[in-house]
Please model this.
Amino acid sequence: MEAMTASYNPKSLAACEFISHEEIIDSLDWADRNKNNASLIDEVLRKASEKKGISHREAMLLLDSSLAEQNEAIFRMAKRIKDEFYGTRIVLFAPLYLSNHCVNGCTYCPYHMQNKRIPRKKLTQEEIAREVAALQDMGHKRLAIEAGEHPVHNPISYILESMETIYSVKHKNGSIRRANVNIAATTVSEYKMLKDAGIGTYLLFQETYHKESYKRLHPSGPKSNYEWHTEAMDRAMDGGIDDVGIGVLFGLERYRYDFCALLMHAEHLEAAKGVGPHTISVPRLRAADGIDPDSFDNGISDDIFAKIVACIRIAVPYTGIIVSTRESQASRQRVLQLGVSQISGGSRTSVGGYELPDPDNDTAQFEVNDLRTLDEVVNWLIKLGHIPSFCTACYRAGRTGDRFMALCKSGQIQNCCHPNALMTLEEYLIDYARPETREIGEKLIQSERGSIPNEKVRLKVGDWLDEIKEGRRDFRI
Ligand code: SAM
Model:
């Protein structure tokens, strides 16, 4: 395989070295020159079949491959890796928008400071408790907290207090067991505070790794500092957060550049911190107030989107891949086969949108493409042969960071995530599902419970499933 450029240093803590522009350009050029080279692509696929991941260059070659036979093999390989690492489970979550106050000038986001048309809103703790109760009534156990960046309206103390509120709400049989947080890049000491408050994954999308484009797309506010943003995950890990989730907003920059850099970011975290990203998100730019995705020139087709997901799955087998309701039902259906492990369901992207749906979407961050209820999504997943999971066990059992990666890489998740998925699905079916969803869900659990390899675990899970039917909750392996 082609050597890397000298400027690329995945262990470096400097953004310009672990996201080396020169290395990206060189990798893109090399992949382009070899995209019809069947034997080279086959060699990469052979390496990928060991399921230990492949480099950004190799992944770039697969993404660029223009050979039909090789492309089919790429999709088959992605599906195989997904099945072996994650089985048929799909974890469900919902975003919770706390505040749309923001001091940044991101040109693609309607929350940008210059936008005077949208009403600005920040939830009080009482409103958050009501939002959380509404989310619990849908059946959610896992949230992604979202907020704009604003030192006065949304300081870290507000986020911490909101997390405490979220974890404290126990409505009927409901509870939020994992709160992931998507807020702007911050300091090590603030990351420590988030860790102490029980953060699940710290999510931060790079938007684009292309420095010049980044500067143009973020003309003002703290987020305009490329290095501060790009090096945020290192600070988050220094602050003790083991699970970090990276992503780019596809549509802003040319996808090949960002795909390559995204994988270099994953390589960097593994090389410098010993743990790669817990998740990779693949959001695509959507229409929003004053935002027309077509004006950004770099939109990607559904075919390219599917190939990106497949190639990420092959390159970073252990990472979770997240797809949100920015994608349509059809697009989500396609990528579920190719490596996605988490999806959102029943999402509202407006501030306070769960308790009081916002008919005009006035405070929405973007238009969602999949408007189905959580129950419709659960029903659909079951019919497609997936196991909808509300599991949050790893994080609560301390299996984060390298411990989660080790579990995932060892293939032991079948004795762990699989039973936890079945038990949390059972809770969902009893507490929240429509009769038809409950019926097909119960059948699924019956047929799946026998496939837990470890006999002791299998028997224990059988007992616990019975206890869930009798009203007990929150069992986990
Ligand atoms: N304030 C945080 C920050 O500065 O990184 C992030 C919170 S924001 C609510 C979450 C993500 O939504 C952003 O990182 C961006 O990728 C995405 N987003 C913004 N505008 C969007 C749009 N028009 N369509 C799709 N996604 C968008």
